[in-house]
Amino acid sequence: MSPILQVENLTKSFGDLVLFENISFGLAEGQRVGLIAKNGSGKSTLLNILSGKEGYDEGRISFRRDLCVGYLEQNPSYPGELTVLEACFHHGNTTVDLIKDYERCMETEGHPGLDELLVRMEHEKAWDYEQKAKQILSQLKIRDFNQQVRHLSGGQLKRVALANTLITEPDLLILDEPTNHLDLDMTEWLEEYLRRTNLTLLMVTHDRYFLDRVCSEIIEIDNRTIYSYKGNYSYYLEKRQERIDAKTVEVERANNLYRTELEWMRRMPQARGHKARYREEAFYELEKVAKQRFYDANVKLDVKASYIGNKIFEADHLCKAFGDLKILDDFSYIFARYEKMGIVGNNGTGKSTFIKILMGLVKPDRGMLDIGETVRFGYYSQEGLQFNEQMKVIDVVQDIAEVIELGNGRRFTASQFLQHFLFTPEAQHNYVCKLSGGERRRLYLCTVLMRNPNFLVLDEPTNDLDIVTLQVLEEYLQGFKGCVIVVSHDRYFMDKVVDHLLVFNGEGDIRDFPGSYTQYREWKEAKARHDKELQVAAKTQATTKPVRTRSDEKRRMSFKERREFEQLEEEIAELEAEKKAIEEALCSGMLSIDELTEKSRRLPQLTDLIDKKTMRWLELSEIE
Protein backbone atom coordinates (compact mmCIF):
# COMPACT_ATOMS: atom_id res chain seq x y z
CA MET A 1 0.00 0.00 0.00
CA SER A 2 1.39 3.38 -1.01
CA PRO A 3 1.44 6.15 1.65
CA ILE A 4 -0.90 9.09 1.07
CA LEU A 5 -0.53 11.05 4.35
CA GLN A 6 2.31 11.41 6.83
CA VAL A 7 2.10 13.39 10.09
CA GLU A 8 5.40 14.01 11.90
CA ASN A 9 5.94 15.47 15.39
CA LEU A 10 2.69 17.46 15.35
CA THR A 11 1.98 19.73 18.34
CA LYS A 12 -1.13 21.81 19.00
CA SER A 13 -2.05 23.93 22.00
CA PHE A 14 -4.48 26.67 22.98
CA GLY A 15 -2.68 28.87 25.46
CA ASP A 16 -1.63 26.68 28.39
CA LEU A 17 -3.77 23.77 27.19
CA VAL A 18 -1.68 21.30 25.16
CA LEU A 19 -3.94 18.96 23.19
CA PHE A 20 -1.22 16.75 21.71
CA GLU A 21 2.55 16.93 21.56
CA ASN A 22 4.98 15.52 18.98
CA ILE A 23 2.50 12.96 17.63
CA SER A 24 3.32 11.06 14.45
CA PHE A 25 1.29 8.68 12.30
CA GLY A 26 0.64 7.86 8.67
CA LEU A 27 -2.14 6.66 6.37
CA ALA A 28 -1.64 4.31 3.43
CA GLU A 29 -3.96 3.84 0.49
CA GLY A 30 -7.02 1.76 1.41
CA GLN A 31 -6.57 2.04 5.20
CA ARG A 32 -9.71 2.58 7.31
CA VAL A 33 -8.73 4.23 10.57
CA GLY A 34 -10.89 5.20 13.55
CA LEU A 35 -9.70 8.01 15.82
CA ILE A 36 -10.61 7.69 19.51
CA ALA A 37 -10.02 10.09 22.42
CA LYS A 38 -11.84 11.62 25.37
CA ASN A 39 -13.84 14.79 24.65
CA GLY A 40 -11.54 17.79 24.76
CA SER A 41 -8.44 15.81 23.76
CA GLY A 42 -8.29 17.32 20.28
CA LYS A 43 -10.04 14.85 17.92
CA SER A 44 -11.94 17.49 15.93
CA THR A 45 -8.98 19.87 16.13
CA LEU A 46 -6.72 17.23 14.55
CA LEU A 47 -9.22 16.64 11.73
CA ASN A 48 -9.49 20.41 11.15
CA ILE A 49 -5.69 20.63 10.96
CA LEU A 50 -5.50 17.80 8.40
CA SER A 51 -8.21 19.43 6.27
CA GLY A 52 -6.39 22.77 6.33
CA LYS A 53 -9.06 24.60 8.33
CA GLU A 54 -6.84 25.14 11.36
CA GLY A 55 -3.14 25.76 11.98
CA TYR A 56 -0.73 23.97 14.30
CA ASP A 57 2.24 24.92 16.47
CA GLU A 58 4.98 22.54 15.31
CA GLY A 59 5.46 19.52 13.08
CA ARG A 60 5.00 18.55 9.47
CA ILE A 61 2.07 17.21 7.41
CA SER A 62 2.73 15.68 3.98
CA PHE A 63 0.05 14.63 1.48
CA ARG A 64 0.54 12.64 -1.69
CA ARG A 65 0.56 14.90 -4.73
CA ASP A 66 -2.86 15.42 -6.41
CA LEU A 67 -4.64 13.79 -3.45
CA CYS A 68 -8.40 14.54 -3.34
CA VAL A 69 -9.57 14.98 0.27
CA GLY A 70 -13.23 15.00 1.39
CA TYR A 71 -14.01 16.35 4.88
CA LEU A 72 -17.28 16.13 6.81
CA GLU A 73 -17.20 18.63 9.67
CA GLN A 74 -19.00 18.02 12.96
CA ASN A 75 -21.04 21.22 12.52
CA PRO A 76 -21.10 22.10 8.79
CA SER A 77 -22.44 25.43 7.49
CA TYR A 78 -23.63 26.73 4.10
CA PRO A 79 -24.98 30.05 2.81
CA GLY A 80 -28.66 30.10 3.71
CA GLU A 81 -29.91 31.05 0.24
CA LEU A 82 -28.55 27.87 -1.41
CA THR A 83 -30.92 25.03 -2.25
CA VAL A 84 -30.17 21.49 -1.08
CA LEU A 85 -28.87 20.51 -4.52
CA GLU A 86 -26.77 23.67 -4.84
CA ALA A 87 -25.25 22.95 -1.41
CA CYS A 88 -24.06 19.59 -2.74
CA PHE A 89 -22.07 21.49 -5.39
CA HIS A 90 -20.96 24.30 -3.04
CA HIS A 91 -17.61 22.99 -1.84
CA GLY A 92 -16.00 22.73 -5.22
CA ASN A 93 -13.91 19.89 -6.62
CA THR A 94 -12.52 19.13 -10.06
CA THR A 95 -15.80 17.61 -11.29
CA VAL A 96 -17.91 20.53 -10.05
CA ASP A 97 -15.45 23.02 -11.59
CA LEU A 98 -15.60 21.07 -14.87
CA ILE A 99 -19.43 21.22 -14.89
CA LYS A 100 -19.29 24.99 -14.31
CA ASP A 101 -16.77 25.36 -17.16
CA TYR A 102 -19.10 23.39 -19.43
CA GLU A 103 -22.11 25.55 -18.48
CA ARG A 104 -20.13 28.77 -19.12
CA CYS A 105 -18.98 27.36 -22.46
CA MET A 106 -22.57 26.61 -23.51
CA GLU A 107 -23.62 30.16 -22.57
CA THR A 108 -20.80 31.69 -24.66
CA GLU A 109 -21.33 32.37 -28.34
CA GLY A 110 -19.48 29.89 -30.53
CA HIS A 111 -18.92 27.46 -27.59
CA PRO A 112 -15.11 27.84 -27.50
CA GLY A 113 -13.26 24.74 -26.25
CA LEU A 114 -16.40 22.58 -26.30
CA ASP A 115 -14.73 19.53 -27.87
CA GLU A 116 -12.09 19.36 -25.15
CA LEU A 117 -14.70 19.86 -22.43
CA LEU A 118 -16.87 17.06 -23.83
CA VAL A 119 -13.91 14.65 -23.70
CA ARG A 120 -13.14 15.65 -20.10
CA MET A 121 -16.83 15.42 -19.09
CA GLU A 122 -16.95 11.89 -20.46
CA HIS A 123 -13.65 10.90 -18.83
CA GLU A 124 -14.66 12.17 -15.36
CA LYS A 125 -18.25 10.86 -15.68
CA ALA A 126 -19.52 14.36 -14.94
CA TRP A 127 -22.81 13.72 -16.78
CA ASP A 128 -23.97 11.47 -13.91
CA TYR A 129 -22.83 13.78 -11.12
CA GLU A 130 -26.19 15.43 -10.38
CA GLN A 131 -28.04 12.12 -10.57
CA LYS A 132 -25.57 10.57 -8.14
CA ALA A 133 -26.07 13.49 -5.73
CA LYS A 134 -29.85 12.97 -5.83
CA GLN A 135 -29.49 9.24 -5.22
CA ILE A 136 -27.33 9.76 -2.12
CA LEU A 137 -29.62 12.52 -0.80
CA SER A 138 -32.60 10.19 -1.21
CA GLN A 139 -30.80 7.43 0.72
CA LEU A 140 -30.28 10.01 3.50
CA LYS A 141 -34.02 10.87 3.47
CA ILE A 142 -33.53 14.31 1.86
CA ARG A 143 -36.00 14.45 -1.02
CA ASP A 144 -36.87 18.14 -1.45
CA PHE A 145 -33.87 19.16 -3.55
CA ASN A 146 -35.15 22.76 -4.01
CA GLN A 147 -35.59 23.50 -0.29
CA GLN A 148 -33.35 26.33 0.93
CA VAL A 149 -30.59 25.45 3.39
CA ARG A 150 -31.81 28.07 5.90
CA HIS A 151 -34.97 26.02 6.44
CA LEU A 152 -33.15 22.77 7.24
CA SER A 153 -32.76 21.39 10.76
CA GLY A 154 -29.26 20.75 12.13
CA GLY A 155 -29.66 17.03 11.41
CA GLN A 156 -30.82 17.63 7.83
CA LEU A 157 -27.91 20.00 7.23
CA LYS A 158 -25.45 17.37 8.49
CA ARG A 159 -26.93 14.85 6.05
CA VAL A 160 -26.65 17.30 3.12
CA ALA A 161 -23.00 17.85 4.07
CA LEU A 162 -22.47 14.08 4.19
CA ALA A 163 -23.96 13.74 0.69
CA ASN A 164 -21.74 16.60 -0.51
CA THR A 165 -18.68 14.76 0.85
CA LEU A 166 -19.58 11.32 -0.53
CA ILE A 167 -20.44 12.33 -4.10
CA THR A 168 -16.94 13.73 -4.66
CA GLU A 169 -15.54 10.18 -4.22
CA PRO A 170 -12.31 11.50 -2.63
CA ASP A 171 -9.09 9.53 -2.28
CA LEU A 172 -9.05 10.33 1.45
CA LEU A 173 -12.34 10.69 3.33
CA ILE A 174 -12.24 12.42 6.75
CA LEU A 175 -15.45 12.10 8.78
CA ASP A 176 -16.20 13.79 12.12
CA GLU A 177 -19.11 12.02 13.84
CA PRO A 178 -20.86 10.95 10.58
CA THR A 179 -23.63 8.97 12.34
CA ASN A 180 -24.91 11.91 14.42
CA HIS A 181 -28.47 12.77 13.27
CA LEU A 182 -28.73 9.60 11.17
CA ASP A 183 -31.48 7.13 12.00
CA LEU A 184 -30.67 3.42 12.21
CA ASP A 185 -31.52 2.61 8.60
CA MET A 186 -29.34 5.46 7.31
CA THR A 187 -26.48 4.47 9.62
CA GLU A 188 -26.56 0.90 8.30
CA TRP A 189 -26.75 2.19 4.72
CA LEU A 190 -23.66 4.39 5.30
CA GLU A 191 -21.87 1.48 6.99
CA GLU A 192 -22.45 -0.73 3.94
CA TYR A 193 -21.56 2.11 1.52
CA LEU A 194 -18.17 2.69 3.17
CA ARG A 195 -17.42 -1.04 3.31
CA ARG A 196 -18.02 -1.36 -0.45
CA THR A 197 -15.72 1.50 -1.48
CA ASN A 198 -11.93 1.39 -1.81
CA LEU A 199 -11.27 4.88 -0.45
CA THR A 200 -8.95 5.66 2.49
CA LEU A 201 -10.84 6.64 5.62
CA LEU A 202 -10.02 8.57 8.82
CA MET A 203 -13.04 8.84 11.08
CA VAL A 204 -14.15 10.03 14.51
CA THR A 205 -17.31 8.31 15.76
CA HIS A 206 -18.86 7.14 19.03
CA ASP A 207 -20.85 4.39 17.26
CA ARG A 208 -18.91 1.28 18.28
CA TYR A 209 -20.72 -1.16 15.96
CA PHE A 210 -20.02 1.25 13.08
CA LEU A 211 -16.38 1.53 14.16
CA ASP A 212 -16.02 -2.24 14.52
CA ARG A 213 -17.50 -3.06 11.11
CA VAL A 214 -15.92 -0.27 9.02
CA CYS A 215 -12.43 0.35 10.48
CA SER A 216 -9.46 -2.01 10.43
CA GLU A 217 -7.16 0.15 12.55
CA ILE A 218 -7.63 2.37 15.61
CA ILE A 219 -5.49 5.31 16.70
CA GLU A 220 -6.01 6.84 20.12
CA ILE A 221 -4.98 10.20 21.57
CA ASP A 222 -4.38 9.75 25.28
CA ASN A 223 -2.44 12.01 27.62
CA ARG A 224 -1.21 14.14 24.64
CA THR A 225 0.32 11.05 23.00
CA ILE A 226 -0.90 8.90 20.10
CA TYR A 227 -1.17 5.09 20.14
CA SER A 228 -1.89 2.83 17.16
CA TYR A 229 -3.70 -0.54 17.15
CA LYS A 230 -3.73 -2.74 14.01
CA GLY A 231 -7.21 -4.17 14.35
CA ASN A 232 -10.87 -3.25 14.78
CA TYR A 233 -12.54 -1.75 17.86
CA SER A 234 -12.84 -5.09 19.69
CA TYR A 235 -9.10 -5.70 19.23
CA TYR A 236 -8.36 -2.14 20.39
CA LEU A 237 -10.26 -2.66 23.67
CA GLU A 238 -8.21 -5.75 24.48
CA LYS A 239 -4.82 -4.22 23.62
CA ARG A 240 -5.58 -0.87 25.25
CA GLN A 241 -6.30 -2.60 28.55
CA GLU A 242 -2.99 -4.47 28.26
CA ARG A 243 -1.22 -1.14 27.69
CA ILE A 244 -2.90 0.48 30.70
CA ASP A 245 -2.08 -2.49 32.95
CA ALA A 246 1.58 -2.38 31.87
CA LYS A 247 1.71 1.39 32.37
CA THR A 248 0.14 1.10 35.83
CA VAL A 249 2.83 -1.40 36.89
CA GLU A 250 5.51 0.95 35.52
CA VAL A 251 4.13 3.94 37.45
CA GLU A 252 3.85 1.93 40.69
CA ARG A 253 7.46 0.75 40.32
CA ALA A 254 8.57 4.32 39.59
CA ASN A 255 6.70 5.58 42.68
CA ASN A 256 8.51 3.11 44.93
CA LEU A 257 11.89 4.12 43.52
CA TYR A 258 10.89 7.81 43.58
CA ARG A 259 10.35 7.75 47.36
CA THR A 260 13.89 6.42 47.87
CA GLU A 261 15.46 8.92 45.48
CA LEU A 262 13.43 11.81 46.94
CA GLU A 263 14.89 11.11 50.37
CA TRP A 264 18.39 11.25 48.85
CA MET A 265 17.58 14.51 47.00
CA ARG A 266 16.34 16.16 50.21
CA ARG A 267 19.59 15.67 52.06
CA MET A 268 21.98 18.53 52.52
CA PRO A 269 23.64 19.63 49.27
CA GLN A 270 27.11 18.67 50.56
CA ALA A 271 25.85 15.12 51.17
CA ARG A 272 25.33 14.62 47.45
CA GLY A 273 28.03 16.91 46.16
CA HIS A 274 30.33 14.04 45.31
CA LYS A 275 27.53 12.00 43.75
CA ALA A 276 27.38 11.46 40.01
CA ARG A 277 25.49 14.21 38.18
CA TYR A 278 23.61 11.61 36.13
CA ARG A 279 21.75 10.40 39.27
CA GLU A 280 20.25 13.83 39.81
CA GLU A 281 19.21 14.04 36.16
CA ALA A 282 17.75 10.53 36.35
CA PHE A 283 15.71 11.62 39.39
CA TYR A 284 13.87 14.29 37.38
CA GLU A 285 13.09 11.79 34.61
CA LEU A 286 11.83 9.35 37.25
CA GLU A 287 9.67 12.10 38.76
CA LYS A 288 7.90 12.62 35.42
CA VAL A 289 6.94 8.94 35.28
CA ALA A 290 5.93 8.70 38.95
CA LYS A 291 3.66 11.74 38.77
CA GLN A 292 1.66 10.54 35.77
CA ARG A 293 -2.04 10.41 36.53
CA PHE A 294 -4.54 8.05 34.93
CA TYR A 295 -8.24 8.72 35.16
CA ASP A 296 -9.81 5.31 34.94
CA ALA A 297 -12.39 5.05 32.16
CA ASN A 298 -13.99 2.13 34.00
CA VAL A 299 -14.89 3.99 37.19
CA LYS A 300 -18.24 3.03 38.66
CA LEU A 301 -20.85 5.69 39.26
CA ASP A 302 -23.15 4.27 41.91
CA VAL A 303 -25.70 7.01 42.60
CA LYS A 304 -28.75 5.87 44.50
CA ALA A 305 -32.07 6.70 42.82
CA SER A 306 -34.83 8.09 45.02
CA TYR A 307 -37.69 5.71 45.95
CA ILE A 308 -40.16 4.87 43.19
CA GLY A 309 -43.55 3.27 43.84
CA ASN A 310 -45.36 0.56 41.88
CA LYS A 311 -47.36 3.03 39.81
CA ILE A 312 -45.15 4.60 37.16
CA PHE A 313 -47.26 5.90 34.28
CA GLU A 314 -50.24 4.78 32.25
CA ALA A 315 -50.95 5.99 28.72
CA ASP A 316 -54.66 5.63 27.98
CA HIS A 317 -55.76 5.90 24.31
CA LEU A 318 -53.33 8.70 23.44
CA CYS A 319 -53.69 10.40 20.06
CA LYS A 320 -51.44 13.05 18.54
CA ALA A 321 -51.10 14.37 15.01
CA PHE A 322 -49.59 17.35 13.22
CA GLY A 323 -51.91 17.96 10.28
CA ASP A 324 -52.00 14.74 8.26
CA LEU A 325 -48.96 13.30 10.06
CA LYS A 326 -50.03 10.84 12.77
CA ILE A 327 -47.68 10.41 15.73
CA LEU A 328 -49.85 8.49 18.20
CA ASP A 329 -53.02 6.68 17.18
CA ASP A 330 -55.02 5.30 20.12
CA PHE A 331 -51.83 4.37 21.99
CA SER A 332 -52.15 2.67 25.39
CA TYR A 333 -49.34 1.39 27.62
CA ILE A 334 -48.71 0.62 31.29
CA PHE A 335 -45.09 1.21 32.32
CA ALA A 336 -43.68 -1.25 34.87
CA ARG A 337 -41.41 -0.60 37.82
CA TYR A 338 -37.66 -0.77 36.98
CA GLU A 339 -38.46 -1.11 33.27
CA LYS A 340 -35.74 -0.12 30.79
CA MET A 341 -37.28 0.71 27.42
CA GLY A 342 -35.55 1.70 24.20
CA ILE A 343 -37.37 3.71 21.53
CA VAL A 344 -36.28 3.27 17.90
CA GLY A 345 -37.63 4.39 14.56
CA ASN A 346 -36.79 6.56 11.59
CA ASN A 347 -36.53 10.33 11.91
CA GLY A 348 -39.95 11.98 11.80
CA THR A 349 -41.92 9.05 13.26
CA GLY A 350 -42.59 10.87 16.55
CA LYS A 351 -40.06 9.52 19.05
CA SER A 352 -39.10 12.88 20.55
CA THR A 353 -42.73 14.08 20.47
CA PHE A 354 -43.77 11.03 22.51
CA ILE A 355 -41.07 11.87 25.07
CA LYS A 356 -42.25 15.48 25.27
CA ILE A 357 -45.85 14.33 25.82
CA LEU A 358 -44.63 12.13 28.67
CA MET A 359 -42.71 15.08 30.18
CA GLY A 360 -45.75 17.37 29.88
CA LEU A 361 -44.07 19.64 27.32
CA VAL A 362 -46.53 18.75 24.54
CA LYS A 363 -50.23 18.05 25.04
CA PRO A 364 -51.89 15.05 23.30
CA ASP A 365 -54.93 15.67 21.08
CA ARG A 366 -56.91 13.01 22.94
CA GLY A 367 -56.36 10.51 25.72
CA MET A 368 -54.88 10.63 29.20
CA LEU A 369 -51.43 10.21 30.72
CA ASP A 370 -51.47 9.24 34.42
CA ILE A 371 -48.08 9.53 36.16
CA GLY A 372 -47.38 8.07 39.61
CA GLU A 373 -46.89 10.39 42.59
CA THR A 374 -43.39 9.08 43.45
CA VAL A 375 -41.99 9.48 39.92
CA ARG A 376 -39.09 11.92 39.80
CA PHE A 377 -37.97 12.54 36.22
CA GLY A 378 -34.44 13.20 35.03
CA TYR A 379 -34.76 14.51 31.47
CA TYR A 380 -31.81 14.70 29.08
CA SER A 381 -33.06 16.41 25.92
CA GLN A 382 -31.45 17.26 22.59
CA GLU A 383 -32.03 20.98 23.24
CA GLY A 384 -31.03 21.05 26.91
CA LEU A 385 -27.52 22.52 26.69
CA GLN A 386 -28.07 25.91 28.32
CA PHE A 387 -25.23 27.15 30.53
CA ASN A 388 -23.82 30.48 31.55
CA GLU A 389 -20.76 30.64 29.30
CA GLN A 390 -18.74 32.62 31.88
CA MET A 391 -19.23 30.10 34.71
CA LYS A 392 -16.63 27.51 35.63
CA VAL A 393 -17.49 23.80 35.32
CA ILE A 394 -17.31 23.25 39.09
CA ASP A 395 -19.61 26.24 39.72
CA VAL A 396 -22.27 24.85 37.35
CA VAL A 397 -22.48 21.66 39.43
CA GLN A 398 -22.17 23.37 42.83
CA ASP A 399 -25.10 25.65 41.94
CA ILE A 400 -27.24 22.51 41.93
CA ALA A 401 -25.70 20.77 44.95
CA GLU A 402 -22.47 20.92 46.92
CA VAL A 403 -22.83 17.25 47.91
CA ILE A 404 -24.46 14.33 46.05
CA GLU A 405 -25.98 11.56 48.18
CA LEU A 406 -25.08 8.03 47.05
CA GLY A 407 -27.13 6.10 49.62
CA ASN A 408 -25.94 3.96 52.55
CA GLY A 409 -24.44 7.07 54.15
CA ARG A 410 -22.03 7.64 51.25
CA ARG A 411 -21.72 10.96 49.46
CA PHE A 412 -19.72 12.68 46.74
CA THR A 413 -18.58 16.26 46.66
CA ALA A 414 -19.32 18.11 43.43
CA SER A 415 -15.65 17.77 42.45
CA GLN A 416 -15.60 13.99 43.08
CA PHE A 417 -18.79 13.57 41.06
CA LEU A 418 -17.27 15.46 38.12
CA GLN A 419 -14.17 13.25 38.23
CA HIS A 420 -16.41 10.21 37.68
CA PHE A 421 -17.43 11.85 34.43
CA LEU A 422 -13.79 12.36 33.49
CA PHE A 423 -13.45 16.05 34.39
CA THR A 424 -9.98 16.25 35.92
CA PRO A 425 -9.45 18.71 38.81
CA GLU A 426 -7.78 21.06 36.32
CA ALA A 427 -10.65 20.77 33.80
CA GLN A 428 -13.22 21.55 36.52
CA HIS A 429 -11.87 25.10 36.70
CA ASN A 430 -12.21 25.71 32.97
CA TYR A 431 -14.86 28.16 31.82
CA VAL A 432 -17.89 26.69 30.03
CA CYS A 433 -17.13 28.77 26.94
CA LYS A 434 -13.85 26.84 26.50
CA LEU A 435 -15.47 23.38 26.53
CA SER A 436 -15.77 21.25 23.40
CA GLY A 437 -19.21 20.11 22.22
CA GLY A 438 -18.72 16.67 23.78
CA GLU A 439 -17.55 18.15 27.11
CA ARG A 440 -20.69 20.31 27.26
CA ARG A 441 -22.81 17.19 26.70
CA ARG A 442 -20.94 15.43 29.47
CA LEU A 443 -21.47 18.35 31.86
CA TYR A 444 -25.18 18.45 30.98
CA LEU A 445 -25.43 14.72 31.75
CA CYS A 446 -23.85 15.35 35.16
CA THR A 447 -26.45 18.02 35.98
CA VAL A 448 -29.26 15.56 35.12
CA LEU A 449 -27.95 12.56 37.07
CA MET A 450 -26.84 14.41 40.20
CA ARG A 451 -30.46 15.32 41.07
CA ASN A 452 -31.11 11.67 42.04
CA PRO A 453 -34.00 10.98 39.62
CA ASN A 454 -35.81 7.63 39.72
CA PHE A 455 -37.05 7.81 36.12
CA LEU A 456 -34.49 8.74 33.48
CA VAL A 457 -35.70 9.92 30.08
CA LEU A 458 -32.73 10.22 27.71
CA ASP A 459 -33.32 11.66 24.23
CA GLU A 460 -30.26 10.95 22.04
CA PRO A 461 -27.78 10.91 24.94
CA THR A 462 -24.96 9.43 22.82
CA ASN A 463 -24.61 12.33 20.33
CA ASP A 464 -21.20 14.02 20.79
CA LEU A 465 -20.27 11.92 23.84
CA ASP A 466 -16.95 10.14 23.62
CA ILE A 467 -16.72 6.35 23.94
CA VAL A 468 -15.12 6.54 27.40
CA THR A 469 -18.06 8.55 28.77
CA LEU A 470 -20.53 6.19 27.09
CA GLN A 471 -18.96 3.25 28.91
CA VAL A 472 -19.40 5.05 32.26
CA LEU A 473 -23.03 5.90 31.41
CA GLU A 474 -23.81 2.34 30.24
CA GLU A 475 -22.53 0.82 33.46
CA TYR A 476 -24.47 3.36 35.49
CA LEU A 477 -27.74 2.63 33.65
CA GLN A 478 -27.27 -1.14 33.92
CA GLY A 479 -27.23 -0.87 37.72
CA PHE A 480 -29.75 1.99 37.96
CA LYS A 481 -32.50 1.22 40.51
CA GLY A 482 -35.22 3.06 38.68
CA CYS A 483 -36.94 3.34 35.30
CA VAL A 484 -35.28 4.28 32.01
CA ILE A 485 -36.52 5.34 28.57
CA VAL A 486 -33.82 5.84 25.94
CA VAL A 487 -34.24 7.28 22.46
CA SER A 488 -31.04 6.54 20.57
CA HIS A 489 -29.59 5.55 17.20
CA ASP A 490 -26.55 4.01 18.90
CA ARG A 491 -27.05 0.26 18.43
CA TYR A 492 -24.28 -0.80 20.82
CA PHE A 493 -25.61 1.50 23.57
CA MET A 494 -29.16 0.18 23.15
CA ASP A 495 -28.00 -3.45 23.29
CA LYS A 496 -26.18 -2.73 26.55
CA VAL A 497 -28.89 -0.77 28.36
CA VAL A 498 -32.49 -1.63 27.43
CA ASP A 499 -34.66 -4.72 28.03
CA HIS A 500 -37.12 -4.23 25.17
CA LEU A 501 -37.96 -1.83 22.35
CA LEU A 502 -40.87 0.36 21.38
CA VAL A 503 -40.63 0.52 17.59
CA PHE A 504 -42.10 3.62 15.89
CA ASN A 505 -42.97 2.64 12.30
CA GLY A 506 -44.65 5.95 11.42
CA GLU A 507 -48.29 6.99 10.98
CA GLY A 508 -49.03 6.05 14.60
CA ASP A 509 -47.98 2.42 14.13
CA ILE A 510 -46.07 1.52 17.34
CA ARG A 511 -45.02 -2.05 18.20
CA ASP A 512 -43.46 -3.52 21.33
CA PHE A 513 -40.51 -5.85 20.63
CA PRO A 514 -39.35 -8.10 23.52
CA GLY A 515 -35.59 -8.06 23.01
CA SER A 516 -32.44 -6.10 22.19
CA TYR A 517 -31.85 -4.01 19.09
CA THR A 518 -29.62 -6.69 17.52
CA GLN A 519 -32.37 -9.29 18.01
CA TYR A 520 -34.88 -6.86 16.49
CA ARG A 521 -32.72 -6.39 13.40
CA GLU A 522 -32.28 -10.15 13.00
CA TRP A 523 -36.05 -10.64 13.26
CA LYS A 524 -36.69 -7.78 10.82
CA GLU A 525 -34.26 -9.23 8.25
CA ALA A 526 -35.80 -12.72 8.62
CA LYS A 527 -39.28 -11.24 8.14
CA ALA A 528 -38.13 -9.29 5.05
CA ARG A 529 -36.68 -12.49 3.53
CA HIS A 530 -39.90 -14.36 4.29
CA ASP A 531 -42.07 -11.61 2.75
CA LYS A 532 -39.89 -11.65 -0.36
CA GLU A 533 -40.23 -15.43 -0.63
CA LEU A 534 -44.01 -15.07 -0.36
CA GLN A 535 -44.06 -12.49 -3.15
CA VAL A 536 -41.92 -14.71 -5.39
CA ALA A 537 -44.10 -17.75 -4.65
CA ALA A 538 -47.30 -15.80 -5.33
CA LYS A 539 -45.88 -14.45 -8.59
CA THR A 540 -44.74 -17.92 -9.65
CA GLN A 541 -48.12 -19.41 -8.81
CA ALA A 542 -49.95 -16.68 -10.74
CA THR A 543 -47.82 -17.07 -13.87
CA THR A 544 -47.55 -20.87 -13.85
CA LYS A 545 -50.29 -22.45 -15.94
CA PRO A 546 -50.93 -26.15 -15.63
CA VAL A 547 -50.05 -28.03 -18.84
CA ARG A 548 -52.84 -30.15 -20.17
CA THR A 549 -51.80 -33.36 -21.91
CA ARG A 550 -54.07 -34.29 -24.73
CA SER A 551 -55.00 -37.89 -25.02
CA ASP A 552 -57.55 -39.73 -27.09
CA GLU A 553 -58.43 -41.72 -24.02
CA LYS A 554 -60.08 -39.90 -21.11
CA ARG A 555 -58.52 -40.74 -17.75
CA ARG A 556 -60.65 -40.60 -14.65
CA MET A 557 -59.44 -39.99 -11.10
CA SER A 558 -58.94 -43.19 -9.16
CA PHE A 559 -60.54 -43.74 -5.76
CA LYS A 560 -57.16 -43.27 -4.08
CA GLU A 561 -56.52 -40.02 -6.00
CA ARG A 562 -60.02 -38.78 -5.16
CA ARG A 563 -59.32 -39.33 -1.45
CA GLU A 564 -55.93 -37.61 -1.77
CA PHE A 565 -57.54 -34.64 -3.58
CA GLU A 566 -60.13 -34.13 -0.82
CA GLN A 567 -57.51 -34.54 1.89
CA LEU A 568 -55.24 -31.99 0.23
CA GLU A 569 -58.00 -29.37 0.31
CA GLU A 570 -58.37 -29.86 4.06
CA GLU A 571 -54.59 -29.85 4.70
CA ILE A 572 -54.00 -26.70 2.65
CA ALA A 573 -56.77 -24.89 4.54
CA GLU A 574 -55.25 -25.94 7.90
CA LEU A 575 -51.75 -24.89 6.86
CA GLU A 576 -53.03 -21.51 5.61
CA ALA A 577 -54.81 -20.97 8.94
CA GLU A 578 -51.67 -21.87 10.90
CA LYS A 579 -49.59 -19.54 8.75
CA LYS A 580 -52.00 -16.66 9.26
CA ALA A 581 -52.00 -17.21 13.03
CA ILE A 582 -48.16 -17.17 13.15
CA GLU A 583 -47.97 -13.98 11.08
CA GLU A 584 -50.45 -12.25 13.40
CA ALA A 585 -48.50 -13.45 16.45
CA LEU A 586 -45.20 -12.18 15.01
CA CYS A 587 -46.70 -8.74 14.46
CA SER A 588 -48.33 -8.58 17.90
CA GLY A 589 -45.11 -7.84 19.82
CA MET A 590 -46.29 -10.10 22.67
CA LEU A 591 -44.00 -13.07 22.04
CA SER A 592 -40.96 -14.03 24.08
CA ILE A 593 -37.59 -14.39 22.32
CA ASP A 594 -37.86 -18.20 22.27
CA GLU A 595 -41.39 -18.09 20.83
CA LEU A 596 -40.30 -15.48 18.30
CA THR A 597 -37.40 -17.66 17.13
CA GLU A 598 -39.53 -20.81 16.94
CA LYS A 599 -42.31 -19.17 14.93
CA SER A 600 -39.83 -17.43 12.59
CA ARG A 601 -38.37 -20.85 11.74
CA ARG A 602 -41.81 -22.42 11.26
CA LEU A 603 -43.00 -19.83 8.69
CA PRO A 604 -40.74 -20.83 5.75
CA GLN A 605 -41.50 -24.52 6.45
CA LEU A 606 -45.22 -23.77 6.16
CA THR A 607 -44.69 -21.87 2.91
CA ASP A 608 -42.85 -24.83 1.36
CA LEU A 609 -45.55 -27.29 2.47
CA ILE A 610 -48.34 -25.09 1.10
CA ASP A 611 -46.54 -24.72 -2.25
CA LYS A 612 -45.94 -28.47 -2.60
CA LYS A 613 -49.48 -29.45 -1.66
CA THR A 614 -50.97 -26.76 -3.88
CA MET A 615 -48.98 -27.99 -6.88
CA ARG A 616 -50.16 -31.58 -6.22
CA TRP A 617 -53.77 -30.36 -5.87
CA LEU A 618 -53.46 -28.59 -9.26
CA GLU A 619 -52.15 -31.80 -10.87
CA LEU A 620 -55.06 -33.83 -9.53
CA SER A 621 -57.62 -31.17 -10.47
CA GLU A 622 -56.65 -31.66 -14.15
CA ILE A 623 -57.86 -35.26 -14.02
CA GLU A 624 -61.54 -35.68 -14.85
Please sum up the structure shown.
The protein has 624 residues and is α/β, with parallel strands linked by helices.
Structure report:
This protein has helices at 43-50, 84-88, 94-107, 114-123, 129-139, 154-167, 184-196, 208-214, 233-266, 277-290, 351-358, 393-398, 414-420, 437-449, 467-478, 491-497, 517-543, 559-588, 593-621, and strands spanning 3-14, 17-28, 32-36, 58-63, 69-72, 172-176, 200-204, 217-222, 225-229, 313-322, 325-334, 340-345, 366-371, 377-380, 403-407, 410-413, 455-459, 483-487, 500-504, 510-513. It is of the alpha/beta class and 624 residues long. It has four domains: 3-237, Rossmann fold; 247-290, no CATH class; 313-513, P-loop containing nucleotide triphosphate hydrolases (Rossmann fold, 3-Layer(aba) Sandwich); 519-621, no CATH class. A six-stranded mixed β-sheet has the order 5-6-7-3-8-9, with helices on both faces. A six-stranded mixed β-sheet has the order 14-17-18-12-19-20, with helices on both faces. Helix 3 (94-107) runs antiparallel to helix 4 (114-123), helix 9 packs across helix 10 (277-290) and helix 17 packs parallel to helix 19 (593-621). It is globular, with a radius of gyration of 31 Å.
